[in-house]
Amino acid sequence: MKILGIETSCDETAAAVVELLPRTDGGADVRVHANVVSSQVALHEQYGGVVPALAAREHAANIGPVVERALAEAGHPHIDRIAVTRGPGLAPALLVGLTFARALSWKLEIPVVGVDHMDGHIHSNWLSEHFPAADIRFPALNLIVSGGHTDLVLMRDHGSYEIVGETLDDAIGEAFDKVARLLGLSYPGGPKISALARSGDPMRYQLPRPMLKSDTFNFSYSGLKTAVLYLIRDITNNARPLTDQEKADIAASFQEAAIDVVVQKAIRAATHHGIGTLLLSGGVSANALLRERLAAACQANGMICILPELRYTTDNAAMIAVAGYYSSPTPEQPAMDANLRLGQNTTA
Ligand code: KG4
Ligand code: ZN
Predict the structure, then answer these.
(1) Ligand 1 within 6 A of CB of 189
(2) Atom 14 of ligand 1 has which residue's CA nearest to it?
């Protein structure tokens, strides 16, 4: 089955053509024929974050050419199904992709399925060439770390999810972005913090590990961001700018604290639920230290750790196409839900 994936939930206009070849074990082999991403980062950078109305305008201008390019790169194949992100995300941005997908489905007379963006991130792990999807065993525990989510999701099968932990305030990616802003770095801050941290000392400043000791598997990242704000105030006394070394040491100390919490909690949740396979996904899964630490912690605890390939960590439509394969088309057209929650109406 060849699926055209479409993704416009935030600031990337993306389209992909993915072929899935069913296997006898119920899974499928995956081949990515095209994966086109048009990023709006440069536009939103000047505002310090994504502006929904501007994002929608850019999506509307780019969606046609992006889909056309994906189809051309794939050799204009016959498409069996369209998969489109229907939430969660920015409402005006989501509507552009959804409306385009519905119109194209009508024109081509092929079904369209609505996909939960987070279900897409989870399925970025099925795009890996290094760890064949056939080797992923259920139940698995997903650690989803992005700009909007920090979730621990128990996965019993494709489409069968239970959120066992989530952030009570800011998401981990949001904390990276906010701390980056405090250090004078532009949006998105995650990659810039991790680059800066390479020349920093992660032990120089002791920062809190919020909720590490709590009995739940929930997270909280707003306190860590505030701790960094106070730390900067204490260092500079509001009287001088930070030195480059201080900035690097703050970035490294923050990154250490932020990652320490997700890794420890993911292992604890997997142990508690008796799960031997951990899957990482979401934009923050591009972070090298997180990948290294999670892999090492899994190894130390006898668990299998699956990491998405770097090119599929941030928003893309290939992951939406794979998630769309495991969802069934419904008689109704997919509707937008900006607050969609994994496990609820994922396939509607
Ligand atoms: O999944 P994503 O592309 O969009 C959402 O669905 O939110 O994630 C974007 C987030 C941003 O907060 C960005 O700063 C973060 O992922 N990010 C990183 C890295 N690369 C992207 N955070 C830490 N380290 C990175 N290398
Ligand atoms: Zn995302």
Answers:
(1) yes
(2) 190
